[in-house]
Fold this protein.
Amino acid sequence: MAPGAWTETEVQELKAAINDGLSVEEAAEVLDRADIEEVRQKCRELGLEPKKRQS
């Protein structure tokens, strides 16, 4: 699989994580993706609105 490619399972897991109220950073951790910006971009592509990271 190409770097940055998303499987259907990962997309579903991302949707579930964001719908459960996780931030982009938390979702990236759950998905084991180190590139936070990549996860942020995928959220934008999917029209997901993650919560802001808690300080």
